[in-house]
Inverse folding.
């Protein structure tokens, strides 16, 4: 690589990085300054936290947070349990129709969930679950991606470990719990972070299936908040936006090391 | 129950075990008797079915036919963990996420042995195997030899009457392997369990085992004590497999007049087996080797040459190497001559080889291979 090449690559990266972070910077700028400074970028603009207080008071964000937290936790637990069991079966058992079933699971990866919104809604209605947190979580709990990811990880566990545990008297579920799951920890971490961030940000399905404060997650709450009462007061909307994405941002910064590493390790294996 | 007292091993009996996968036949009617508390090695080239047989004994694999009896009880349908045995794997199969102590006590925890009892037994095993300083480490932080000991510890802590090992030393370097051989043998004697030990290394089998079961192509070639296996191989395969360098198995006619007579006597075509250490240069003999090359090893040398048309290797003292192209007369003790049926491969006892060889002008040198029929009994 010549010097010019490196210079070109570096400035390209910096440019893309700036473009990517610009909306976030703008949101931070407007959120911490009074409304007059929305389009006036001067260095001596006064700092304020009023926008956050206003946003917090204007809508039941505490409730929305609780809803989202319940939602992502429920989805994560459901996905871990179901995907672990399914992945173990696909990875280590021979049964009739296994390959066909696994192909069907993979097929699920190709289907955009949004295509199924109408069908899902009909199903949820039949179950009488409209406007509940269960209804938001249910379509996502059996995750094809999770099954696939965990199956691939389980298949890298040496058969001899399985045999050794079996000789030592561990039953099927004990082997799964004491051998496979601990060895797949990096995969669980990576998958967990992806799942949490995806469902934290998910918007369309919760928007359709919820219609009350008690069930709405923050994403829907935010959009309701920004379209109705506050008009186009960007400073308050951006303060609310930062607030809703804040926990995720902080979590990502905390976990980013393990996050990136576990994805890399999942690739190497 | 104490680790230092001799616990009782159980006898194992395999009756007509066979195993097929689709069209491939991995094991063919294998029957073996393994006395209680003995050390039996399953020996054979890779792919001969020895590991499969071990897995069938362990219960990790189901036989397609035949019965497995442990301590007189038919365990063929019993799952692996009910057969009261332990197993050491080639890769050691240590759990990478558990510490050494947790690895060793894994089986005790799954079987719900109380904590105090676990700690007591762990102490004893750690002492026995010299693992005391490493108990809190993870397997990845240990050397190959230490990992091997942890695997042994996990196998012996439960004090099972039967222990199965699948090439446990093959990942160690040569020097460590030698010390571990001695240790393993001592450990087995001390604890008194019945051992089945799979290996492809004849040195391991010969040095450690009470009984060697030599396998080839899914069948038992010969089951015998190491000494009997070396001194009276039952088939040309057994003859070639045991011994370094292997026995020369040549058509009997290559022995000249003596060979022809032997064939005439037996009334069929024969193969003659001559150990490299059984052939000795002498003053004069009808048996003449034309030397084609030599390999100097220090204490002795391997001399390659031809008897008639057959390639033969012999072990000669290192100080007087014959040059290629020379012809040397060879002496052969009659009891070092092994004869096999050329068609069936069965061993044939020579009726009176001594007078026959002398008549044919082959002098009897010192016996190179220890005298097979005198000092001890074998079957």
């Amino acid at each position: 690589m010549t010097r010019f090449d490196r210079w070109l690559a570096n400035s390209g990266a910096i440019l893309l990085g700036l473009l990517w972070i610009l909306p976030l910077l703008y949101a931070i700028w407007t959120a911490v300054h009074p409304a007059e400074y929305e389009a006036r970028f001067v260095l001596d603009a006064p700092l304020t936290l009023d926008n956050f207080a206003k946003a917090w008071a204007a809508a039941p964000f505490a409730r929305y947070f609780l809803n989202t937290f319940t939602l992502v936790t429920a989805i994560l637990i459901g996905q871990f349990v179901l995907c672990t069991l399914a992945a173990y079966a696909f990875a280590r058992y021979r049964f009739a129709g296994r390959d066909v079933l696994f192909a069907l699971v993979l097929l699920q990866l190709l289907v955009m969930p949004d295509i199924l919104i109408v069908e899902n809604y009909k199903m949820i209605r039949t179950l009488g679950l409209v406007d509940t947190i269960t209804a938001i979580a249910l379509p996502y709990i059996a995750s094809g991606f999770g099954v696939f990811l965990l199956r691939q990880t389980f298949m890298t566990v040496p058969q001899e470990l399985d045999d050794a545990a079996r000789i030592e008297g561990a039953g099927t579920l004990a082997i799964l719990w004491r051998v496979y799951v601990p060895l797949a920890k990096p995969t669980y971490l990576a998958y967990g972070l992806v799942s949490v961030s995806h469902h934290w940000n998910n918007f369309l399905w919760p928007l359709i299936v919820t219609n009350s404060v008690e069930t709405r997650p923050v994403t829907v709450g935010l959009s309701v908040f920004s379209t109705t009462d506050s008009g186009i007061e960007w400073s308050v909307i951006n303060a609310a936006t930062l607030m809703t994405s804040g926990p995720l941002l902080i979590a990502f910064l905390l976990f980013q090391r393990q996050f990136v590493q576990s994805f890399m390790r999942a690739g190497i294996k | 129950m104490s680790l230092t007292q001799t616990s009782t091993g159980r006898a194992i009996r395999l009756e007509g075990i066979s195993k097929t996968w689709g069209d491939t036949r991995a094991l063919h009617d294998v029957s073996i008797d393994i006395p209680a508390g003995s050390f039996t090695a399953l020996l054979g080239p890779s792919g001969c079915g020895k590991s499969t047989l071990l897995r069938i004994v362990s219960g990790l694999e189901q036989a397609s036919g035949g019965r497995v009896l442990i301590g007189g009880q038919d365990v063929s349908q019993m799952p692996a963990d009910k057969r009261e045995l332990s197993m050491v794997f080639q890769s050691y199969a240590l759990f990478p996420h558990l510490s050494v102590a947790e690895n060793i006590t894994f089986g005790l925890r799954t079987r719900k042995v109380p904590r105090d009892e676990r700690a007591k037994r762990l102490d004893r095993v750690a002492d026995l195997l010299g693992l005391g300083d490493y108990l809190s480490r993870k397997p990845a932080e240990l050397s190959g030899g230490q990992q091997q000991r942890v695997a042994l510890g996990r196998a012996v802590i439960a004090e099972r009457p039967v222990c199965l090992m699948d090439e446990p030393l093959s990942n160690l370097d040569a020097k460590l392997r030698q010390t571990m051989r001695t240790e393993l043998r001592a450990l087995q004697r001390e604890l008194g369990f019945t051992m089945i030990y799979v290996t492809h290394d004849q040195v391991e089998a010969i040095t450690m085992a009470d009984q060697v079961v030599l396998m080839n192509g899914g069948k038992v070639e010969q089951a015998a004590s190491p000494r009997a296996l070396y001194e009276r191989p039952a088939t040309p395969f057994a003859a070639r497999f045991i011994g370094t360098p292997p026995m020369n198995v040549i058509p009997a006619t290559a022995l000249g007049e003596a060979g022809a007579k032997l064939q005439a006597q037996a009334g069929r075509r024969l193969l003659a087996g001559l150990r490299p250490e059984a052939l000795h240069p002498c003053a004069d003999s009808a048996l003449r080797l034309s030397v084609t090359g030599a390999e100097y090893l220090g204490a002795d040398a391997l001399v390659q040459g031809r008897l008639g048309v057959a390639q033969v290797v012999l072990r000669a003292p290192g100080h007087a190497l014959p040059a290629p192209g020379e012809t040397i007369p060879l002496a052969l003790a009659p009891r070092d001559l092994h004869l096999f049926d050329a068609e069936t491969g069965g061993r044939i006892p020579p009726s009176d080889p001594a007078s026959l060889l002398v008549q044919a002008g082959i002098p009897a040198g010192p016996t190179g291979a220890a005298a097979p029929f005198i000092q001890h009994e074998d079957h």
Remarks:
- The first helix of chain B runs from residue 50 to 58.
- Residues 96 and 175 of chain B are 26 Å apart (CA to CA).
- Chain B has a mean pLDDT of 87.
- Chain B has eleven helices and 19 strands.
